[in-house]
Specification:
405 residues, alpha+beta, Pnp Oxidase, Chain A, seven-stranded antiparallel β-sheet, 20 strands, elongated
């Protein structure tokens, strides 16, 4: 076991225990208010034995994490701490949060999407939160006597869970990663009906209940909780990497290819009738600087392929982060694409998408067969770009944006 320090919100240092091999899939453990990372001892041991890399983090003002000199213990600061920690990790972990730690994790992941974590486990942190539940949790934090010497006594007075209850509930509806909500059957926080409503609303969520356990069943019945947690991880975020072999499931190959992040382009040309034609493509590559060549891959099933094969000129328009609607328009069959998109004719006659991150006007250089695609190589005649914008990215079947740590 090793100790590591992370920089949290405002540069405050946060301390964590690191266990297991960092080559294994990671699990980040977040304790509840008034506790420290040591409450996870038994669960962390079980995870390491099951081949997981475990990070047990102390919240700000708790355990070995620094105390805030200006008492910045509001809920927002705790959420920003987690975002900062996740940005410093080499891979996206499954985040397991108990009580307050669960609500912090839910908010960070629900608001920012799946680029922060690969899964979320809520232990007695009801995703459907009302003021009564929020008030009960806040009261339990203020009255927690067990580890007061390891917790800044100001924390319980400052943390504003009640004020954040609406934000927490709203973030729950935005969850896209695999989610498990676990509660003790005897817990006074939330109820089974609320849990079922959450599972119906969030397609990626599931619910488990531990019998004969109350609030914070994760610690009252750590053996039962660990069994539920490990079952969820092996089913929804497995250790074994998906493996494609020729002739096996094509979806696995597609997912593997999707691990290569790309930009998004719209390839355009003029038809023989003088009408603009175009489609969305993310298979775009620079080939050569001398001569200046690039290539795009066009599906043989595309309605735009015939016009691109017949035309001697075409353009590649690289989209910026604000042009996701343009990408969607040109990816949908049957859309009247150019009537919905600002464009102008380029210097060499090809349609150029207005405001694109970059426009490349090309003359056809070569065509090659590429299985179910045609490889179109162009010689760049003119290029222009916008240096003040960021690219629209595509990764694992979803749009992404640059994330600056």
């Amino acid at each position: 076991m090793a100790e590591r320090e992370f920089k949290g919100f405002g540069g405050l240092l946060l301390s964590a225990d690191m266990r297991g091999s960092d080559e294994d899939p990671s699990v980040l453990l977040l304790h509840g208010g008034g506790q420290t990372r040591h409450v996870w001892q038994e669960t962390a041991d079980a995870l390491v034995k099951a081949g997981r890399h475990v990070i047990s983090l102390d919240l700000r003002g708790h355990g070995r994490s620094a105390r805030s000199e200006d008492a910045r213990y509001e809920f927002d600061a705790c959420v920003e701490d987690l975002r900062a920690v996740l940005a410093q990790l080499a891979s996206r972990p499954v985040v397991v949060g108990a009580g307050l730690g669960g609500w912090i994790a839910l908010t960070a992941i629900g608001e920012d999407g799946g680029h922060l974590a690969s899964g979320l486990v809520l232990a007695d942190a009801p995703p459907e939160i009302d003021l009564r539940t929020a008030g009960a949790l806040a009261a339990s934090i203020r009255s927690a006597p067990a580890q007061t010497e390891n917790v800044d006594p100001v924390f319980g007075d400052v943390i504003d869970v009640e004020k954040s209850s609406e934000r927490i509930s709203l973030a729950a509806s935005g969850l896209k990663v695999p989610v498990l909500f676990v509660r003790g059957a005897l817990s006074s926080f939330g109820n089974r009906d609320a849990a079922n409503r959450f599972v119906e609303k969030v397609a990626t969520a599931e619910f488990a209940e531990i019998e004969d356990a109350g609030h914070l069943a994760v610690f009252d019945r750590s053996d039962a909780f660990s069994a539920v947690l490990l079952d969820f991880l092996e089913r929804r975020v497995p250790r074994v990497m998906p493996d494609y072999k020729q002739g096996s499931d094509a979806r696995t190959l597609r997912d593997a290819l999707g691990c290569f992040a790309t930009g998004v382009t719209v390839v355009t040309t003029m038809s023989a009738e003088g009408e603009p034609v175009g489609l969305t493509a993310n298979s775009f590559t620079s080939v050569s600087l001398d001569p200046p060549l690039l290539l795009v891959c066009i599906a043989k099933s595309s309605s735009s392929l015939a016009a691109l094969e017949a035309s001697q000129r075409f353009a590649v328009n690289v989209l910026h982060i604000g042009q996701q609607p343009v990408s969607n328009t040109f990816a949908m069959p049957g859309e009247d694409r150019f009537s919905q998109t600002p464009w102008q004719e380029g210097q060499y006659g090809s349609p150029l998408i207005s405001g694109a991150l970059a426009n490349f006007e090309c003359i056809k250089f070569d065509l090659h067969d590429g299985g179910d695609h045609v490889i179109l190589i162009g010689k760049v005649e003119r290029a222009k770009y916008e240096p003040r914008r960021d690219p629209l990215l595509y990764f694992k079947g979803k749009y992404r944006r640059l994330h600056f740590a």
